[in-house]
Write a structure and sequence with these properties.
alpha+beta, Membrane-bound Lytic Murein Transglycosylase D, Chain A, L,D-transpeptidase catalytic domain-like, ten-stranded mixed β-sheet, two-stranded antiparallel sheet, elongated
């Protein structure tokens, strides 16, 4: 009989085998874990992309703001200035006083002297910054002279009725007004034609003169009101430095000359004479421009022949002068 091989019991696994099998079972990845591991690279890439996009947006905001402020504060003003320079200076806004000046100019042109004078005085007082202010002053000066030398009545003149025995010299002495002014203000060319009963209109001015060294202009006032301004043809007074104080002066003499010889009012050919108004100090004296026949030379203020003819009739000795 054959010996039967004994049946062996399956032996229990050894500790080594158990640890291996157990370890293998414990560390074997599950299906879900395997899927997570499979998706890990794509999730990382997504996070990196999001972070990069965020950083890109942040950088754009920071650098965009800096660029905006740089353009607004520096580049744009420089470009605007360059554009303005290329276009030239901007035209000033239209002067709203011009229509008013043109309106009152019509009064002057129509010889409405008294109304025109009132309108011009109001314009000069109300619109001192007008672009037409100098033209208005020149117009007002012409109006004042026209009224002063007109042959009729005006608010600035007193009527005088000629009496028996009156002569021009007597009237001049009685009324303290020069014969030249009496004749000019009444349109008289020959005093021998005066007749008893005639009416003369006599002005009673209170003139003062201002010599403006800065503007180089001579202005005449009557009773402290603007009368007329005169524009010199030549200015040869001594130069001054800084801002010197005003100088109080006066007219010392009013003289007329023909061919270098002094003549008086009423002399033959007096109308052809040139004039010299001596102001103390003498460096500010007024004289007819030599180019128009004047004989005065040296320091002083030259005026046109017509202006000096006018001033020699208006001014007398003692008239105050302010040199500013």
């Amino acid at each position: 009989m054959l010996f039967d091989r004994p049946k062996l019991r399956p032996s229990a696994p050894s500790n080594f085998e158990f640890r291996i099998s157990s370890g293998a079972k414990r560390h074997r990845p599950s299906i879900l874990h395997s899927r997570k591991l499979a998706n890990f690279p794509s999730r990382c890439r997504g996070n990196i992309l999001l972070k990069g996009l965020f950083l890109l947006i942040l950088a754009a905001a920071v650098f965009g703001s800096a660029a905006y402020f740089t353009y607004t504060l520096f580049l744009k003003p420089a470009q605007d200035l360059k554009d303005e320079t290329a276009l030239g200076a901007a035209s000033p806004p239209p002067d709203a006083t011009i229509p008013e000046y043109q309106r009152i100019r019509q009064l002057k042109d129509s010889h409405q002297w008294v109304d025109a004078r009132t309108a011009y005085e109001h314009f000069i007082e109300t619109y001192p910054a007008s672009s037409e202010i100098e033209a208005a002053k020149d117009d007002l000066g012409e109006i004042n002279v026209a009224i002063y030398f007109s042959g009729g009545a005006s608010p600035d003149k007193d009527a005088y009725l000629l009496k028996p025995g009156d002569t021009l010299a007597r009237i001049e002495h009685k009324l303290k007004v020069s014969g030249d002014v009496i004749m000019r203000s009444n349109g008289i060319t020959d005093p021998r034609r005066l007749r008893v009963g005639d009416t003369l209109y006599i002005p009673h001015p209170d003139f003062s003169l201002v010599v403006d060294r800065k503007a180089e202009i001579v202005t005449l006032y009557d009773h402290a009101r603007f009368f007329k301004q005169y524009h010199p043809t030549k200015w040869t007074v001594p130069a001054v430095k800084g801002n010197p104080p005003p100088v109080d002066a006066h007219i010392n003499d009013v003289a007329s000359f023909i061919n270098g010889l002094r003549v008086s009012f009423g002399s033959p050919n007096y109308d052809d004479s040139t004039h010299w108004i001596q102001i103390t100090p003498g460096s500010y004296s007024l004289y007819t421009d030599p180019s128009e026949g004047g004989t005065k030379s040296g320091p002083g203020i030259a005026l046109s022949s017509s202006d000096m003819d006018e001033l020699s009739a208006l001014l007398t000795r003692g008239v105050p002068v302010s040199i500013r």
